[in-house]
Amino acid sequence: MRNLLDRFRGAGGTSGSSGAGTFRADFTASLVVFLVAVPLCVGVAVASGVPAELGLITGIVGGLVTGFLPGSSLQVSGPAAGLTVLVYEAVEQYGVAALGALVLISGLLQLAMGALGLGRWFRAISIAVVQGMLAGIGLVLIAGQLYALADAKAPSSGLDKIFSIPGLIGDVAGSSDALKAVAVGAGTIVVLVLWPRFRQGAKVLPAPLAAVALATSATAIFDLPIARVEVKGLLDAIQPPGGSEFQALAEVGVIGTVLAFTLIASAESLFSAAAVDRLHDGPRTDYDKELMAQGAGNAVCGVLGALPMTAVIVRSAANVQAGAKTKASRVLHGVWLLVFAVLFPSALGIIPVATLAGVLVYSGWKLIPTKDLVPLWKAHRGEAIILIVTAGAIVITNMFEGVIIGLLMAVAKTAWETSHVHVEVTGREDDAGAGSGSGSGEKPLHVRVRGNATFLRLPKLLDELEGLPREREVELDLTGLRHVDHACEMALATWTERHNAVVKRGAALEERIPA
């Protein structure tokens, strides 16, 4: 046991801290993270359309497997609200049995990317795309969970969820049972918002657990006729993928879903790691090792047929704020989840679905960067547009296509901003003494182009060249260009040749006309 603690301490502890004191801090922090993780694991699973136990399994793997591996010592992994929409769509389209195959292949891809040293490259993804991705997820998550608040079935697409909300309001107004479910869910949200203000209570009981406990108690006391979480045994919920599920991976749509799992889970985990690094003074994250740790965890989750995992900022921040010193805290939180899932599975069956919906509506709202949008619009309007378009594309289409649209916009914006071109013209002073229409005897204009000439700036560049005097020849100097692509180079050469040919024909015609 002491050797194990020494390993933990060497990986994430602060120098000079005693072993007993470090373990005591990690033990306390693990209990806090466990209490935060239980309602979130269950809520994400229910919102994803899978048995609640699968969320706990993913949380257990996040603690016992990913938590033990090197990478980031203090961030905590498990099922995340950021993947809820994508998992729900995959389950609706391919079934729960296929989920394990999707997650397993995604985990293997993460392992390969980490081994190839691609983890650090995720830091190059535009933050506007990531914020837009999370905002789009939050909007779809909120829209879907509004139906769960009323114990109603949500439409499949993001747009249908939004456009059907007026009908949902009418249905709720005409049903006393639906009104009771909404009241429980709304009460959960109120507790989540107000609970952190009671600092003493928040230190003892995390807001998500407090909200779920109060709502569950109220439902039991008043015997409210609302839906509860359906419970299976932990072993019964495990559905390892079979041969038929792996054969389905050859479909184009399935490949897109796997890539979406991989991209979003990796980006969210590594961005979370960067955020967690700013919360503590311990060792910094090794991004490649962290990506491999996430891949190993997702591979195990895939074998068990469970939900995909990411590093989760809510649990990670709770871990740091609770005083965790090493990775022992996140491993122990996995132990507590396992004990809870084995010994007290029936406790899940008393939790109202509307309560978990309230937790996820609140989580979805936290994914939307409401405070950052206005300052971003004022300072970097292009980035704000990318954020808004990415979020809107996810709502209108789906997760994968929305993120791809956002990435393409970010690349196009960067290419546009870096392709600055300046045109300098010398020799215009010769125009003052020249007669109109007289091209012979005049020196050519010297046109020097500086910067980066790409096809994106070609229309502007040609417009400036077309504004030059039509009766003067042009000498084009491209030595000031740091970069010129083939399309731009050919267009400039063609324009210069055609312009000078027209000037020479005009001069020759003037010489043949008698004065």
Can you give a write-up of this model?
The protein has 515 residues and is mainly alpha-helical. Helix content is 65%, strand content 6%. The protein has 23 helices and five strands. The strands form two sheets. It has a three-stranded mixed sheet, with helices on one face. β4 (445-453), α22 and β5 form a beta-alpha-beta unit. α5 packs across α14. The longest helix is centred in the N-terminal third of the chain and has 29 residues, at 19-47. The chain is elongated. It starts with a helix and ends with a helix.
Assembly level: single chain
Order of helices and strands: HHHEHHHHHHHHHHHHEHHHHHHEEHEH
Strand order of the largest sheet: 3-4-5
Enumerate the spans where pLDDT stays under 50 for 5 or more consecutive residues: 4-17, 432-440
Question: How far apart, in Å, are the first and last alpha carbons?
Answer: 108 Å
Strand fraction: 5-15%
**Structural class category:** mainly alpha
Structure annotation, total helices:
23
Give the averaged pLDDT, no decimals: 83
Total beta-strand segments: 5
What is the gyration radius calculated from CA atoms?
Answer: 30 Å
Q: What form results from the Cα inertia axes?
A: elongated
The major beta sheet can be summarized as: 3 strands, mixed
